[in-house]
Amino acid sequence: MPSLEEIRAAARLIAPVVAPTPQYAWPLLAKRLGIEVWVKHENHTPTGAFKIRGGLVFIDWLTRTHPEVKGVVAATRGNHGQSVTLAARRAGLESVIVVPHGNSKEKNAAMQAFGAELIVHGEDFQESVEEAGRIAQARGLFAMPSFDLRLVTGVATYSLEFLSALPDLQTVYVPIGLGSGICGMLTAKAALGHKVDAVGVVAEAAPAYALSLAQGKLVSHPTTTLIGDGMACRTPAPEALAIIAEGIARTVLVS
Question: Which of 42, 124, 140, 186 is the most exposed place for a label (fewest CB within 10 A)?
Answer without folding.
Answer: 140
